[in-house]
Amino acid sequence: MVLQPGYGIASGTPHLEPHSGPCQMCPELPCIGACPSGALRPIPLEQVRIGIARLDPARCIAFHGQDCHVCLDVCPLPGKAIAIEAGRPAILDARCTGCGVCSFACVAQPTAIRIEKL
What we know:
By secondary structure, the protein is α+β, with helices and mostly antiparallel strands. Helices cover 13% and strands 19% of the residues.
């Protein structure tokens, strides 16, 4: 999480940059307790919605004949937010938290997964 000026009303507030430091989806979500304003409320991990992962098949090595499932292996909700279908990763939009762990861990360069803001 970084503090970044120039974000309008959110200027100076923490935000995530998944390519350099994703949300780790810690089981206790300690960020909620650390938030000085109380803006973050406790919710079950499965209900967290930071953004949504988008997979670019043109960049994903699994779509080009290589066996890879790193994104599934690192996903905090494996099989729920990311699944392997026909040997290729598939983002399950309804359950993706947008944490960015998959994007951060992706072995493709540039990454085959980007996180869209909601």
